[in-house]
């Protein structure tokens, strides 16, 4: 399946979508019957390159935007279990072949998938509807490993599906992308675990 540049790919049409290096979208297999469905979410032997230390459950109301955030020192994966979530990505790793590449994605509870977010790839979540999102992280929560920039900075190159989203005070007052680019370059997150980056 194809996706036009600027059009968010959905979990069902990932292969043709240019995602930043190391960002992967793994379809999950729901086993449905008359009672509902069951899908495995995590197996240690899946080659996601991510070994969670912490799991979080994010509940977010419709028209809420969280981001843009980036973690220089830990990786995450997320799975939307209910609702429709627009995910914006921006690669801020100076040594990445997809440095400064942006990508939009649409995740829904109906098409379950696991999205990996390597350290140094900035991300923002916009909830079209109320959403429930599982977030696994390779490190315990550390607010100093959660940097951000203003979601609406035009230099992000993100075509957000919203004009006036609800934001946290921190996200509303976030610095421009240029400041975040410099901060992430100083932190030098390298490439994601499991991918040789010459170090
Ligand atoms: C992320 C996180 C937050 N918290 C707490 C801190 C605070 O009281 C409350 C809400 O945290 P925040 O305001 O930072 O949440 P939020 O603004 O939603 O931040 C999140 O945005 C998305 C895009 C991500 O990628 C996450 O990693 C995280 O950065 O939850 C934890 O206890 N553990 C955690 O792992």
From TrEMBL:
A GO biological-process term: polysaccharide biosynthetic process
Name of this protein: dTDP-4-dehydrorhamnose 3,5-epimerase
GO cellular component labels: cytosol
InterPro entries per record: RmlC-like, RmlC-like_jellyroll, RmlC_Cupin_sf
Catalyzed reactions: dTDP-4-dehydro-6-deoxy-alpha-D-glucose = dTDP-4-dehydro-beta-L-rhamnose
Site (Participates in a stacking interaction with the thymidine ring of dTDP-4-oxo-6-deoxyglucose): 141
EC code: 5.1.3.13
GO terms for MF: dTDP-4-dehydrorhamnose 3,5-epimerase activity
Its biological purpose: Catalyzes the epimerization of the C3' and C5'positions of dTDP-6-deoxy-D-xylo-4-hexulose, forming dTDP-6-deoxy-L-lyxo-4-hexulose.
Enzyme class label: isomerase
